[in-house]
Amino acid sequence: QLSALESKYRWFPYNKGGNFRRWYGNNEHVVDWFDGGRRIHDYAGVSLDFGGAPVRAKQYYFSAGITWTRVSSANTAFRLFDKGFIFDSTGPSIFPESVDAFALTSALNSKPTRVFLELVAPTLDFRLGPVGRTPIPETILGNDIISITGQKCVAITKSDWDAYETSWDFTTLPLLRPEHRQATLADTYAHLRAHWQAMTGEMQRLEEENNRIFIDAYGLQDELTPDVQLHEITLTCNPHYRYGAGKSDDKYEALLLADTLREFLSYAVGCLFGRYSLDAPGLILANAGETVEEYMARVARGEEREALTFLPDRDNVIPILDGEWFADDIVERFKRFLRVTFGEERYAENLAFVERGLGRDLRGYFLRDFYDDHVRRYQKRPIYWLFSSPKGSFNALIYMHRYRPDTASVVLNEYLRDFQNKLAAHRSHLDRVSIRAASSPRDKTAALKEIDKVDKMIAELAAYEREVLYPLATQQVAIDLDDGVKVNYAKFGKALKRIVGVT
Fold it and tell me: How far is it, in rounded angstroms, from Cα 411 to Cα 387?
C-alpha cells in the first residue's frame, strides 16, 4: 500500500469477477486509487483519514491471491492473480498465507469443490462464506504434484489470455510469431490451430488428473468421475468454450477462423496507427497525443530507422470509403501490411484466404463490420474512433491515444473536403457521359442513376461539414484520457459514429 501511495499512480488493476474462466484471466478493469483512493472516499462522503465504508479489507490490497466471480450462471471458476490488484465484492478474493497458492487453486478448481459449492450455494451466489467453508485436507495441499499441476494450468491459461490484444501483457499476434510461421497465411493458421488443439488437450489432461487426485482424496470414486468436457476447458483458443457447447465441428472451425482473421485485421490497424509495431513487442504509442517521431524513437535508433518493416500513418487519420477514392485508405494500407507480413509471392492467395475466412470482401468488411467488431472487442469503450457522416458515405478512423485538438481539422480539410472535390469531379464526368452522343443508352442510364446517388452523397456531406464537422473543428476540442472513453467520445457529438450505450 505504501508503494502504491508513493508511486503517485492513479489507475490500478481491479478484480471484478467477469466471465466463467478458470486458473488465470479476466484482468480487464482498473480503479482510480490515487492518494489511497481519496476520490472514492470523497464520492461516498467518507473521510479517507478514518477509513471504513465504502472501502473494506484494505490491508489485503495489492497482495497476490485467488479470485472468482461471485454470481455465476454455472459453476464458479477460481483464478490466481499477482501482486498489485484491488478487489471488490463481485470479485471476492482469498489470500493464502500458510498454504501453496497453486495447490489451493488446484483444489478450488477440482470437481469435489464444485459439488460442495453447489450444495452450500444453490442460488449460485458464491460469497466468501461458502468458499471459506470448503473442506480441503491440509495434507493434500502439501502435495507437490498438486502445486505443479496448478502451475502448469496457470501458465497455459496465462499464455492463452495474453495472446489477445485486450490483455495488458499482450506482445504480438500468435499468427505472426516465428514458431508458427509457414509459407502462406493458410498454412500458418493451420499450424497455429494445431498448437491450440494441443494446448486444449493438455489442459483437459491436467484438469482430469487434478480431479482424479481430489476425488481419491475425498473417497468419492463411486460418486464422481474425473472427466472434463471440452466446453469446460476455459481457453479462448478452444472454440467449444468460446462459442458454447452443441455446435458442429465445421461450425466451430468456421467461427474460430473468422475471429482469428478479425484479430489479424485488428492488429494490422494497430500497426497502421503505431499502437503496435512489427519491429518491437507490446504497446508502442499509448499515451495522449503521441506522434510518429516518438514511435520511431521507441522502435529504432539511427541507421535502424531505414530498415523498419512497417511505418504507421503520420496524421492519425485513415479513410474508410466505399470505393478507391484515396490511395492510402484502410484497404490499401492493409494490403500493404499483408504483403509485408506474408510476402509478395503468395499475396493473392493470402488475400483470398482472408476474404474467404471473413465471408466477405475486404472493403465490405472494413466498411460494414470492422468498427462494430472493434466496439465489441473493447466492450463499448473503443480506442479507435470513427468520424462518420449520417448515412456513412464518409468515414475516417483515428486512434484515440494519438488524438490532438487539431485532429478534427485534419479530418475536415485533408479528407472530407478532398472527398467532396473528388465526388464533384466524378459527377461532372457522369454528366458528360449522360449527354455524350457516343454513349450507349445503357451507359447513359447507368450514368443518370449514379448521378442521383452522388447528388445524395454530396448533399449529405455538405450538411455534415456545415452542421457538424466544421463547428467541431473550430472548437479545437481537448480530451483527457483519464476521463475515459465514455466522457471523451460524447464531446464529439454527431461527428462520430453512434454507439448505443456510449453516445
Answer: 8
